[in-house]
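Predict the 3D structure for this chain.
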Amino acid sequence: MEPKQKIPSAYLVLPLFLFPIWYIPYSWLNKNYIVNWFGCGCPVTDEFGNAVSASFNANDFTALFWGVIALCTTILSVVFSKKLLNGRLRILYIVGVLAVSLLLAYWFTQTMLWR
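Done. Predicted structure below.
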């Protein structure tokens, strides 16, 4: 049986770097294009103050985008953990990355909402 190749443990944090890498480009795209395509998430009301439409808008697209980034981060953590971790430590790592990814996705979505 051949020993596993030695890979630095620093690779375990690499999946989480997807969030800061995508923050600035997506923020620019959101401001300049996405809000024009899907419309502002600002509430649309009629003359009586009732909400008129709850259609898909830039806020929904932003939440979807950061959710996909969280999913990609979790998938990358599974791939990286196969080479570095075993057993319960691997499961703990993947669950931890998923939790941090969901938290970051929520936080980044909240910072980019059109109100």
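DSSP finds three helices and no strands in the chain.
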